[in-house]
Amino acid sequence: MNTIKDLGEFGLIEKIKKLFDNPENAIGIGDDCAVLPFDKTNLLVTVDTLIENVHFFSNHPMDKLAIKAININISDIVACGGYPKWAFLSLSLNPEMKTSSLEMFFDSLQKNFSKNNIFLLGGNTTKDDKLSINITLIGETDKPILRSSAKANQDVYVTGKIGCAACGFFALKNNVTESNECLEKFLAPQARIDLIDKIKPYATAMIDISDGLLQDAMHICTSSNIGMDIFLENINLCESKHLSNIDKITFGEDYELLFCADKKHRNSLLEINDIKLIGYTNNSKKLIIYNKGEIIIPQKYGFKHF
Ligand SMILES: Nc1ncnc2c1ncn2[C@@H]1O[C@H](COP(=O)(O)OP(=O)(O)O)[C@@H](O)[C@H]1O
Ligand SMILES: Cc1ncc(C[n+]2csc(CCOP(=O)(O)OP(=O)(O)O)c2C)c(N)n1
Ligand SMILES: [Mg+2]
């Protein structure tokens, strides 16, 4: 008997997409956000969920969990070239949860909404054995940057350091010591809202890295109908010795930005702090990873729920 596991996460999303009509003047399923042209601007809408023991361990500090819940959503808005504005919050709570834990969560959530000029407009509250946090975030942009608009012969860039969240997760799971940088990247990631104005003038296509650098690069390739050569030695990788370089580029949860840009903008882009040129696009429709001249064939490209 066929199961959801046989379909796979992205097979299932494709199946859902085919069942429904596409909106005429808007972009729906398939990008980091839906893009809705509205009164000379574009609204960006995204929704992501965090579920206990699927996305976080039960002892995740509640203030950091609030930071994670908001930043994974801000990251999708930023990946489409926008700023977040309005939010809806759905919570499933275990009735035995301490109110002091919930207060810690809300105190942090309020501070982080306020810091990012986000207004909470509504939500939903239900009971469940496991804690889950679901945020719908609405943002705005004058110029949406999609996954589908990269062209062949462009440069491929990535922001920040890749693999720290993976090493933070590994350390918490296996009870080994790890740097604060790695632990924080897993527990309380920061979306790259700080870089959006600098990248936006040049980016032809962009995605945030939630499922792993390789898998998310592949999403740009598939959506844009192009290929990419990526050079492992050019990626700014986390220094931790706990995981292999391949693990670091396939675990996910980096919430860094991967984008393409015309080669003529290389000097301007390389002047920006915290951005690395990691590869080039081409017409091959294949993603090839090189390590010091040799092709690597990874066993997996990134995280899939099933
Ligand atoms: N159950 C669903 N129903 C409709 N659209 C979905 C569903 N799950 C995912 N999508 C859409 O599929 C695309 C890929 O989803 P996902 O991999 O979760 O993206 P992201 O990493 O940006 O959160 C997005 O456009 C998302 O809105
Ligand atoms: C307890 C626990 N187990 C495993 C993981 C690893 N993990 C869970 S989801 C995920 C990828 C990102 O989550 P997803 O729900 O796919 O977010 P989206 O791509 O939709 O933004 C990873 C690496 C984790 N964070 N916590
Ligand atoms: Mg998602």
From TrEMBL:
Mg(2+) 1 binds at D48, N124. Transmembrane segments: none annotated. CDD domains: ThiL. Pfam families: AIRS. Mg(2+) 4 binds at D32, T46, D76. ATP binds at G123, N124, R147, S210. One of its GO terms (molecular function) is ATP binding. Mg(2+) 5 binds at D211. The keyword Nucleotide-binding applies. Its EC number is 2.7.4.16. Coiled coil: none annotated. Mg(2+) 3 binds at D32, D76, D208. It catalyses: thiamine phosphate + ATP = thiamine diphosphate + ADP. Substrate binds at H55, E253, F303. One of its GO terms (biological process) is thiamine biosynthetic process. InterPro entries: PurM-like_C_sf (IPR036676), PurM-like_N (IPR016188), PurM-like_N_sf (IPR036921), ThiL-like (IPR006283). Gene3D superfamilies: PurM-like C-terminal domain, PurM-like, N-terminal domain. Mg(2+) 2 binds at D48, D76. Keywords: ATP-binding, Kinase, Magnesium, Metal-binding, Nucleotide-binding, Thiamine biosynthesis, Transferase. Reaction mechanism of ThiL seems to utilize a direct, inline transfer of the gamma-phosphate of ATP to TMP rather than a phosphorylated enzyme intermediate. NCBIfam families: thiL. Belongs to the thiamine-monophosphate kinase family. Catalyzes the ATP-dependent phosphorylation of thiamine-monophosphate (TMP) to form thiamine-pyrophosphate (TPP), the active form of vitamin B1. This is Thiamine-monophosphate kinase. It comes from Desulfurella multipotens. The lineage of its organism: Bacteria, Pseudomonadati, Campylobacterota, Desulfurellia, Desulfurellales.
